[in-house]
Write a structure and sequence with these properties.
heterodimer; A: mainly alpha; B: 512 residues; Dipeptide-binding Protein, domain 3; 21% strand
């Protein structure tokens, strides 16, 4: 098992390098000039040229990328064009907020999605099933941005239960967690329902029932565990899309996370910061995928046997 | 069963609808929020400063916070005129073009050290090496210490822009010791300003506390703490002030003005700004090199409609090729009154076929796009089929600076006329901020003459003359000067915004 984990971690290195290469070339092909974005309209032509030279932007793209990779191996993520601070320092300050938001959103999504999916499957074709799937449909369909504003209006302005913006306490993460979690919940609930429907029609479920086990026990002990594999897969994928969703949620709720930083950096063509943010997202996504693969082993003994 | 299912769905839809409807109701039904903390003011802003240092950026968001923590030799007053700040007295020798500045005695930096002539000399030599603020450091040279509180500097001839440059945040005074140590000025923003830096939670908030040893006792801070909160989304900022979570919003969305005007707990401030916004047309591209075509466009557009559609009424029509509200404003021969028949006359004078004109208006945000849509329909009336192109800000900046455009919706903000004229119309700035690509030797000569005319009355005459020449040539199509929109709790007193958008937080106080 440990050998497998180590192998997966080592495999992440070429993935990260590949990602930087792709992103670097996409950024270099994108229209716009980072120095012009940085200095604005009021800069002198001399200051503009001086800055381009100082940042090494007059060098060929492959040289710039090579320099970036070499520095990366030394643990140097570069200096932000916009803030002139170390990218690693800036990222380190933002990662906790994004992780906390992701944690809240995932927790809220799972807490609501699993019961919703299970109930919908067990009560298939009843009004409960209809309502469960309608809520799921809403979650997928409602734009996160709009839903976030709706939550702000209701819970912050009307009821005064939660603060409107910031990241000082756990209370600040409840509404953004709900906005982001609601979106995730929908997909997880739907896959849980279809997976459960498939499992509860299996022969071993019928056998368990015929042995006299209660319906609830059969669902909890036999059906749910076997239905969890696709749910775990989708939850893992959802955490990936949740990172993308955090871009919008962090903007609406003023959370100082990586998503918001990345958008600002893309707008300002702050190449080192964009690359830093994408590296963090890639790393997080790779780790989530690894965790998902490891979770399979815990849920399904056959997979565990393959690892060992 | 289907009936029950249907009832369930209807109930759910009703629940969501009721939440949505309740959210669009009257602001008076909302919670009043936390009670006012009379020791603190929470300011909400859209953009975070890139740096707390003074010389490493040229961002408006950074200028706001630099004004809290630092001082310059001069500052701009409420009418945007330079006034001595750290300087107690000054003198100008017209023969040698030497300025002598005497500092107030006993000025302390936040670290407790004294602010002396050494710090001023070190700062002004250091800022001349910084590319971000290069525009504001070219007017002076040879900065020399005379004694502990006196410095001299020279200018290349008489200079009317020097005092404005010294009032720019880029030239705010920092300790020599930090410069010598090559310290990170953003991590360690030590100045002599009314507020001391406490902490910066990146992306979230910056905290300041009043500086007890501030040298100017008359302008010393009245509120102890300032929390500078970053809330990028306009609607979220509005909700934050409605709920009482923040006390002041620097940039209010024009869409929120109506709602907040009706809220008796807050005061909305609408100040016509000196930000000049226009349809810029590339004067090097035919037929826009013909003054009759430019004049035709100038009177074919309906500025009142644009202000209504693009700004929700929060602006005033432009009255000249240069901003109103600045020294030297001059509406003579602007010719911007909406008159389609006159526009057609100009087109006839040009003699070409309007349908052959290719005008693509580049826009970098929604406001500009809405303005372009009105212009597009206005120009149709004189036979010009204009297009609209949306670009992100960075691309917009580089494409327009390089001259790769026929037209774009843009603007320029400056606190004084000379730097506006130099930036927008001087031929030396073609390729950067002179985007009309105007190269008129007479305009260049008059701008240079104005910048060397120290006497304000004389300078005003020259500036009016430049504007007249620009109006005659109609190099671009000025549209509007928007309002600076801010809002604060009604109990916050002494709030004032200049037409340049500056406010003076140290003068605020709470009505108790």
């Amino acid at each position: 098992m440990w050998k497998y984990i180590l192998k997966r971690i080592v495999a992440m290195i070429p993935v990260l390098i590949g990602v930087t290469l792709i992103v670097y070339f996409i950024l270099s092909l994108a229209p716009g000039d980072p120095v012009r974005a940085m200095l604005g309209e009021q800069s002198t032509p001399e200051a503009y040229e001086e800055m381009r030279e100082a940042l090494g932007l007059n060098d060929p793209v492959i040289v710039q990328w090579g320099r970036y990779i070499l520095n990366l191996f030394r643990g140097d993520f570069g200096i932000s064009y916009k803030t002139k601070t170390n990218v690693a320092v800036e990222l380190a300050a933002r990662i906790p907020s994004t992780l906390t938001l992701s944690f809240f959103a995932t927790t809220i999504a799972i807490i609501f999605a699993l019961p919703l999916g299970i109930i919908a499957a067990v009560k298939q074709n009843t009004w409960i099933d209809g309502i469960s799937m309608f809520i799921s449909l809403l979650g997928v369909s409602i734009p996160i941005f709009w839903f976030g504003l709706l939550l702000l209006q209701f819970f912050c302005l009307k009821l005064g239960w939660f603060p409107a913006s910031g990241a000082d306490t756990w209370l600040h993460y409840v509404m953004p967690g709900m906005a982001l979690g609601f979106h995730c919940m929908a997909s997880i609930a739907r896959i849980t329902r279809s997976s459960m429907l498939e499992v509860i029609r299996q022969d071993y479920i019928r056998t368990a029932r015929s042995k006299g086990l209660s319906y609830n026990k059969v669902i909890r002990k036999h059906a749910l565990k076997n239905a969890l594999i696709p749910t775990i897969t989708v939850t893992g994928l959802q955490i990936g899309s949740l990172l993308a969703g955090s871009v919008l949620t962090e903007t609406v709720f003023g959370i100082p996370g990586i998503g918001r930083l990345m958008i600002q950096s893309i707008q300002g063509l702050d190449y080192p910061m964009v690359l830093g943010c994408i590296l963090v997202f890639t790393l997080m996504f790779s780790i989530v995928n690894l965790i998902v693969d490891l979770l399979y082993a815990f849920v399904d003994p056959r997979i565990k046997a393959q690892y060992s | 069963m289907k009936k029950v299912q249907l009832i369930g769905l209807v109930l759910l839809i009703a629940m969501f609808a009721s939440i949505a409807v309740s959210c669009t109701g009257n602001a008076a039904n909302t919670k009043s929020g936390p009670a006012i903390d009379y020791d603190t003011v929470v300011i909400a802003t859209a953009d975070e400063t890139p740096s707390l240092g003074t010389a490493t950026h040229n961002a408006v968001a950074g200028d706001y916070v630099n004004k809290l923590t630092h001082n310059g030799l001069f500052r701009l007053d409420k009418e945007l005129n330079p006034q001595p700040d750290l300087v107690a007295s000054y003198d100008f020798d017209e023969n040698s073009y030497t300025w002598t500045f005497k500092l107030h005695p006993g000025i302390k930096f936040h670290d407790g050290s004294d602010l002396t002539a050494d710090d001023v000399v070190a700062t002004l030599n250091y800022t001349k090496t910084m590319p971000d603020i290069a525009t504001y450091t070219t007017s002076y040279d040879n900065v020399t210490k005379v004694d502990e509180l006196t410095i001299t500097l020279t200018t290349d001839g008489p200079s009317a822009s020097l005092l404005y440059d010294l009032a720019h945040h880029g030239n705010y005074i920092i300790p020599k010791e930090l410069i010598d140590q090559d310290a990170d000025m953003s991590a360690n923003p030590i100045g002599a300003g009314p507020y001391k830096f406490v902490s910066w939670d990146r992306g979230e908030k910056i905290t300041f506390v009043a500086f007890e040893d501030y040298f100017d006792k008359e302008r010393a801070p009245k509120i102890k703490n300032i929390i500078w909160r970053i809330i990028p989304e306009g609607s979220s900022r509005t909700i934050a002030i409605e709920s009482g979570e923040v006390d002041y919003i620097i940039e209010l969305d024009s869409t929120a003005v109506k709602t907040l005007d009706a809220n008796e707990n807050v005061t909305v401030m609408k100040i016509p700004s000196v930000s000049h916004n226009w349809l810029c047309i590339n004067n090097e591209v035919p037929p826009f090199d013909n003054v009759n075509v430019r004049r035709a466009i100038n009177c074919a557009i309906n500025r009142a409609d644009i202000i209504e559609v693009a700004l929700n009424g929060a602006g005033v029509p432009a009255t000249a090729q240069t901003p109103a509200g600045m020294l030297g404003e001059n509406p003579d021969n602007f010719g911007g009154e909406y008159d389609v028949e006159k526009a057609k006359e100009y087109m006839a004078k040009w003699g070409g076929d309007p349908s052959t004109i290719k005008l693509e208006m580049i826009c970098s945000n929604d406001t500009k796009r809405r303005a372009a849509e009105v212009i597009q329909s206005n120009l149709k009336e004189i036979g010009i089929e204009a297009g609209i192109v949306s670009l992100d800000l960075a691309t917009y900046l580089s494409e327009t600076a390089a001259g790769n455009f026929t037209g774009f919706i843009g603007g320029y903000t400056s606190n004084e006329m000379m730097s506006f004229l130099k930036g927008v119309y001087h031929s030396s700035n073609i390729g950067s901020s002179n985007k009309t690509r105007t190269a008129n030797p007479e305009v260049d000569r008059l701008i240079e003459l104005a910048s060397k005319t120290v006497d304000q009355k004389e300078r005003e005459k020259v500036l009016m003359e430049v504007t007249k020449v620009l109006n005659d040539n109609c190099y671009q199509i000025p549209i509007y000067q928007d309002y600076t929109l801010s809002v604060h709790k009604k109990d916050l007193d002494n709030t004032f915004i200049t037409s340049g958008g500056t406010f003076f937080a140290q003068e605020w106080s709470w009505k108790k």
